[in-house]
Here is the input.
Amino acid sequence: DYYEDTRGADLEDFAIENDLHVLNVGLQYTYSRSNSRTIPDITLASVDLAEVVDNWKVSTQATLSDHERCS
Here is the structure.
């Protein structure tokens, strides 16, 4: 299911106004707890930086956080 609150709309407006691109690829969860998993983490980049980022992914390495590392 898709749900966007006002924070999502504000972030989208910010990205558009600043010509930022979303680097996230795929549907792998970036946050998990015992009772939920979501994708709240978004990687934004300028046009120039977005052109050189290759193979963006959510890391499978263990972390000490409930957020996964993106690289």
